[in-house]
Amino acid sequence: MPVQFSDTTLAEVKKLVARYPDGKHKSALLPVLHLAQDEFGGWLSLETLDYVASVLNLSPIEVYEVATFYSMYNLKPVGKNVFEVCQTGPCMLNGSDEIIAYIREKLGIGPGQTTADGLFTLKTVECLGACGYAPMMQMGKHYREHLTREKVDQIIAESRK
Amino acid sequence: MGRKLLLEKAHVENIRLYEVYRREGGYRSVEKALKSMSPDQVTDEVKKSGLRGRGGAGFPTGMKWGFLAKPAGVPRYLVVNADESEPGTFKDRYLMEFIPHLLIEGMITSSYALGSNNSYIYIRGEYAWIVDILEQAIAEARQHGWLGKNILGSGFDCEIHVQRGAGAYICGEETALLESLEGKRGNPRIKPPFPAVKGLWDCPTVVNNVETITAVVPILNDGGEEYAKIGIGKSTGTKLISACGNINKPGVYEIDMTISVEEFIYSDEYCGGIPNGRKLKACIPGGSSVPILPANLLLKTAKGETRMMTYESLADGGFTSGSMMGSGGFIVLDDRQCVVRHTYTLARFYRHESCGQCSPCREGTGWMEKILWNIETGKGKMSDIDLLWDIQRKIEGNTICPLGDAAAWPVAAAIRHFRDEFEWHVNFPQEAQTRNFGLAHYADALELTV
Ligand SMILES: Cc1cc2nc3c(=O)[nH]c(=O)nc-3n(C[C@H](O)[C@H](O)[C@H](O)COP(=O)(O)O)c2cc1C
Ligand code: SF4
Ligand code: FES
Predict the structure, then answer these.
(1) Which of A119, B189, B298, B344 is the 20 to 30 A CA-CA neighbour of B413?
(2) Nearest CA of chain B to the CA of A149: how many Å?
């Protein structure tokens, strides 16, 4: 099936482009890649990148350059639930190493891996601006903070539903 | 209780909503500026206030605004830096999440001063839910006539747009931010030209931190001179500090810059002391990039004076015995913590975030990370400590943007102040796997007064 934005997303793209002066539509690239990732299964395939290039009237290389630079764009398929656990100093001071070890044990995967059932991907990430509420992780659009083993159990159970 | 200018209303119920914010005195600064002041008069108030950039460098904001080039017929831009990715820093998030209209109000007033008809907020991509909060506040402001064409009949037009990044600390560096806002990789530009002359789409641009722009609201309301009366010396006004690590009450605090570091850590109004009866070992007072200080040098300067929470006092002693205010990301380590391991996580962070343009930064950050990992895991040699020192010195000052320095400083300070702890890791690799070094040489030097 060819990659194709829904009509609502196309309208959204139009609105984005209108925020910049004439001829500066390239500025819409980061936001449009976010839209594409949300719409096409949480990651950006080569086909998707080419499609975004055509929608924004850019050359494909301009899109590849950007997609490969930023850590939030997934260039490989990910699980239905992505756990992005912060491992930087301030979180480490409050036990992020133990939380990461616990999640690894519970899910049976290491950072960068996805469970065989495709339900979970684990990623370790750098400071997310929640250092005072550590340990923490990002799940989709939201943060889960003050993580404990119990909280992790609960989040995993919730996500399985 | 210290003066609160930014967070005074943050806990009023529903302050996120326009009606409540307005009822509490919101948008008065826009009325005052657009109805009774010229743009230059607004800039003058900011100059008088002594406000210094809250993003990390502490550059005087009024002076920065004064540098903005104003060629006829060329648009000018205000870009608000909400990339907030310096480890330890989470204050801008707090402002935007809880009192979003304060930023919108500050942006309208500042845009008027700078002549920016389209202003942008560049927010780190992970703060996705805050984008919705800001969009909501912008929509409300527009609906009530604070944004759009001919605001309050002044002839001034203004729109505010929110641009989401996508995960890259380097996009907090202002020229990388502008590249990213133009839809490119976040590679910092070579300066000059500075953004004030050639910024967004080659037009004159001012980039300011979120907190800086929100501070414009009380400055306009009360006058720059009133603002300047708060604080000590060139540290005027209030500063948000995001406190984290091993303290009883992590969170975001607004301080007027008149309190001591000791009061900030131990008083119940702020961090509330170290949990579980532990001792203070070290602190990084201004975000991960600034030098770490052992407890004795943190609370008192090398001259034996009380160290205060001001730009000048935190920097007292330079890099030999001082640190920096930086972004206000205040990271506290108790006596259980390992300085080598903490420094390793920071080195890993900078390696991960280097954009890769300059070889000293690209190669040096990875090298430092590897060596620190070896020392931490008992595979280090004594000569590695000197090698680390050499590498950080060769990065510092030899790169396009200050990320190189930011990666070098934490390593340098850790070795300078905690060399015995590094050596202990090398001498006792087995032991270092099972316990930590503890407080060491300055353990009894502390006599607390609070
Ligand atoms: C690597 C790096 C990251 C930075 N990150 C931020 C940031 O997240 N937020 C910020 O306001 N300033 C950041 N800065 C500082 C900006 O380059 C710039 O000085 C600042 O936004 C100016 O605003 P101010 O004068 O209001 O502080 C960073 C600088 C560097 C070198
Ligand atoms: S110092 Fe590092 S982050 Fe900055 S431009 Fe050079 S390589 Fe990029
Ligand atoms: S270090 Fe984990 S959120 Fe900042």
Answers:
(1) B189
(2) 19
